[in-house]
Design goal:
It is built from 15 helices and 17 strands. It has 420 residues and is an alpha/beta fold. Among the domains are: 142 residues, no CATH class; 134 residues, no CATH class. Strands 9-13-14-3-17 form a 5-stranded parallel beta sheet, sandwiched between helices.
Length: 420
């Protein structure tokens, strides 16, 4: 999916191919990298959106027969994507955490478009070939799309579905499928902003503040104020950018998230053992603690841990409990608080995740990460079948990166356009 962006903060004009397995944003400070990362997240984020359409009839077949076919009508999906892009233009205040008035002033000349004609889009639909699982509420659905087919085959993995889940499927499944095709190859995305090193530390306090807002809103309502009290509450809640709000939502519900074990749990354990020398723990009350390998009986509150623990804890929790295959991971400054050796190690973890099916966008200033990614690309170009040993480290195929799947963009004030 190729995207054109104009007049977004410091970015005057940029063209990104987000379908690459690895996308690297680099360049000086204040050149728009974080703005671009936030926009990529808003564009690819998977959410529950109600979408009324005649195509939704298939949902009843799915519930009744445990399987169904969803017909892909190009015009309908094209119009859906167009409307989603329009909605994105109107949601800049929410994405970047500013009021509507400020957003209208800062982004008055902003535009975003997907660089694809309707004819190209139709041809791309036919070329799509994937199998995946969708999870909506507590229902898991297997989906299959074959080359040259204009249908998605759906199959329920669950034989018994609650009434509430049926209602949710009827409301949201169609939009989920539309989004899957409209923004292919993205199924969902997850972002780790630079504020990740403090989200777990301050999430409780921020949650208390939100409760105070709600109580204040209820108080206003009891006095029969002319303005809807929830308008005041919701307006206050937009003071954080979307990635931070979403991170806080996860932080406030860690206990429930931790009940699920991701198939990429072992990656988190490896980071814990090799970089942290301990484990990140979530208590039954949803508090984050750290247990060092040197003193396993002692549990340290997250705010008393080393900066590396604070920085990596959100990535570790994501890999343990949230990560799903083919997801897009966006990380702003992955080198944050890391020793150079650990930056190199993290670059190797990224390569292995990419080869497991993930897509990754990173915004970085780290020469160490860039050099190691270059090493992995060069190692791949050697076309070796046996592992390559260099500087006491053995590079096997799971670390290799194909240069065709990598995109790098330089953000620079001196150039009117970001270069690939």
């Amino acid at each position: 999916m190729e995207v054109d962006i104009k007049n977004l903060g410091a970015i005057k004009s940029a063209h990104f191919d987000l379908s690459k397995r690895l996308t690297v944003f680099c360049g000086p400070n204040n050149s728009g990298k974080t703005y671009a990362a936030y926009m990529a997240y808003a564009l690819t984020k998977s959410g529950m959106k109600y979408f009324k359409s005649e195509e939704s009839i298939f949902v009843q077949d799915l519930i009744k027969n445990q399987k169904a076919n969803f017909e892909l009508i190009t015009d309908s999906i094209w119009n859906y994507r167009r409307d989603e892009i329009k909605s994105l233009n109107k949601s800049l205040g929410s994405i970047y955490g500013v009021s509507e008035d400020i957003a209208n002033n800062l982004f008055k000349d902003f535009s975003i478009s997907i660089a694809e004609t309707k004819k190209e889009f139709d041809a791309n639909i036919l070329r799509m070939n994937f199998s995946n699982e969708l999870k909506i509420n507590d229902v898991t659905i297997e989906i299959l799309k074959k080359v040259d087919s204009r249908e998605i085959n759906l199959k329920l993995k669950d034989t018994v579905i609650s009434k509430s889940s049926i209602e949710i499927l009827e409301l949201f499944l169609t939009s989920k499928l539309f989004s899957l095709i409209a923004f292919y190859p993205f199924t969902s995305s997850y972002i780790l902003p630079v504020e990740r090193n403090s989200i777990y530390t301050f999430s409780k306090e921020l949650s208390i503040q939100k409760q105070e807002f709600l109580e204040r809103a209820q108080e206003l309502g009891s006095k029969k104020n002319n303005r809807d009290p929830f308008h005041w509450y919701l307006k206050k809640s937009t003071r954080y950018p979307m990635p931070i709000r979403d991170g806080l939502e996860v932080a406030e519900d860690l206990n429930n998230y931790s009940k699920t074990k991701s198939e990429f749990y072992s990656f988190a354990e490896e980071i814990e053992n090799e970089l942290l020398n301990g484990k990140v723990i979530v208590t039954k009350d949803g508090d984050v603690q750290f247990s060092s390998n040197k003193a396993k009986r002692k549990k340290i509150p997250i705010h008393l841990t080393a900066s590396i623990v604070k920085t990596l804890s959100s990535l570790i929790f994501y890999l343990k409990h949230i990560a799903t295959k083919n997801e897009l991971i966006i990380i702003d400054e992955p080198e944050l608080n890391l020793h150079p050796n650990n930056q190199v190690y993290l670059a190797r973890i990224f390569a292995r995740l990419i080869n497991q099916g993930f897509r990754l966008i990173i915004s970085t200033h780290s020469d160490y990460i860039i050099r190691e990614l270059n090493n992995l690309i060069m190692a791949s170009s050697l076309k070796r079948t046996e592992p390559l040993k260099f500087n006491s480290f053995t590079y096997s195929k799971e670390y290799f990166l194909d240069f065709k799947t990598v995109g790098a963009y330089l953000f620079n004030f001196k150039n009117p356009t970001s270069r690939n």
